Structures are given as structure tokens and as C-alpha cells.
Amino acid sequence: MSNAAGQYDAYLERRHFEGLDGLRCLAILPVIAHHATAAPPHGIWGKGAVGVDLFFVLSGFLITTLLLREQRASGRLDLGRFYLRRTLRIFPLYYAVLGLQLLSALTISRPGPPREHFLANWHWHATYMANWFVDYDVPHSIPFAFSWTLCVEEQFYLFWPGLVALLPKLALPFVLVGGILFDQEWVGRLGLSEASYRIVSSFAPAIAWGALLALGLDSRRVHGWLGRVLRWRFAAPAFLLGVVAALSQTHTNYYWLCSALVGLVGSTAVTGGGVLRPLLEQRWIVGIGQLSYALYLTHSLALAILRTCLPASAQVFPIVFGLGFPMACGLAWLARRYIELPALRWRDRRISSGLSVGADPRQPVADVAS
Prior knowledge:
The protein is an all-alpha fold. The protein has 18 helices and no strands.
């Protein structure tokens, strides 16, 4: 057996991708920092939202890998089981936090535009359609605004598994490339209503990049080609530098950025991160990565509490982030222990598929934080 063939077979047999929890940590930290600023600074320090794109790439890669492996193992996709597993992974914590937000708005929140905006739109958050129907172009803060990314991912989960089940495997890359090359400016010339435009243009290309990576690594021939680059021990830091270089540009080239993110995820998936592996496997980094979904859902609450308790420091980033991040970690730990993990244990006892491509045996597949 050739070395390339052995590496491909070993890749297919791997149940857990070491290093991906570390990437989740690298994704969630800039997102929280971004939300802790009163107004994002200029330059690379104002582009913390890139963490969302990294989460999208991770989700596209992990979900597609899981679908392809189930299809290979059983000859078909059990879509009912897939959606039930996704529901038990995502919904309990999401709806617990949304319910807490709604209860707060009805009982203790001060009257004003943010409260009224949330009460007028909470049902769109509850149905994962906020990115289509909630007006984000308002001059005030928007409670639960972060849900738009989870809406994008849920919409991907709704349609993509069916396409994987129905279409020939060779057709799937063309579908994804079409999503990547989709020209929102061109669609804007069609004279669609605002709601129709939002629906048509809501697909996140970064998810398609991650899914393309999964398709490539699942193919013996393409895996051999990609492996020549991704298995270089310095590949992960090189791609990370590519991300930094893309963000350093005044106008970030999105294709360049996504290419670098895909390389970072791919090299970490096949090598554990190469020379970055010791960093990505640091205990505290792995711990934050495993909390990333809960952190994404609870960090806004932590920052809001801090700003309410310390109004004089509400715009001081070192204080807001320095105190808000530990508070968010505490809330996320409680949410994970008492809501997220019990639901996952019940799921895995009752409907485990026997397949996993998570980064850790305790970590569910494809954390959807963004």
C-alpha cells in the first residue's frame, strides 16, 4: 500500500479530529471581543467577525464529512435520524436562552426601542428566520441579534443533507461552487422585494467552502492532491498567516480569506495542526472550544449584565472584555453542564448513529456556534 493510500484510509477511519476544538476557541474569542467593543476599531482589530466565517467553514466541513461517512457505511442517509440528532444538539440550549431573553423582555427590561424590537421579532428567532425578516438596519442595539448566524446554519442543515442523499456525488461540488460564486450584486438588480432579496442572498459561502473541503478529503484522488499541501507540518501556521494577511487588507478579499480558512481547517483535520498542535491542544484552549456553542449563546447576556452594572465603564474594552469573558465562560459552563450535555447524553443513548467526526469523544459533531 502506498503512503498516500495509507494516509487516506487512516483519514477515513479517524473518528475524532484533534485540534478542531482549538480552532473553535480561535473562532469564538474574536467574536466576543468584537461584541465587547463600543465601535469596532479600524484595521484588523475591527474584524473579529471573521470568527463567524471560521465557524461556518467548520460546520460545512464536519456536517458534510458525517453525511458522507454515514452514506458510505450504510449505503444511504437516514435523514430522519440526522434531523433528530441535530435537533437534540442545537435546540435545547438555543430555546432555553431565547426563552430567558423573552422572559426578561416581558418582565424586567426597560421600555424602549431595543425591547420593542425584540418583542416584535422574537418569533422569527424562534423559527430560525431572523436573517430573512428581522430589520437589522436600526439605530439601536438589537437583543438576540447573533441568532442570524444560527439561522444561516439551520437553513443549510435543512437543505444540504437532502441534496447529498439525492444527487450523484460528482454533482455536489458544482452545487457548492454555484453557492460560492453567487453574485448578490447581480441579484440586487432583479427588482426583488427586500424580504425576497434577503432570502435569496442569505446563503453563507464559507459553509460551502467547508463542505467542498469535506468532499475533497473524502475522495481518494483529491485527498492525495490536497494531502501534499495539508500534511506539511507548517501548513496550519502558514494558512493562519494567510488569514491574518487577508484581514490586514483595507478591503478584505473574501475568496482569499475563505481559501486560507479552508486550508487552516483542512491542515488541522489531517495533521492535528502540525507545529500548532501543542497550542491547539492546550487544556484551556480545548475547554473554551468545547464551550463555544454555549459561549456564543450566552456571551451577549454576560456583556449586557456587565454594562448594566458598570455603566461608567460600558465603553471601555479592556474592562468589558476582561470581566465579561470570564462571566460568559461561567454562564456557558452552567448552560453546557445542565442543559446541553444532558440532552446530548440522552440523544447518544437513544439514537446514536455509531459515527462521529467530532474533535473529542465528549464533543458533539459540528459545533454550530458562529
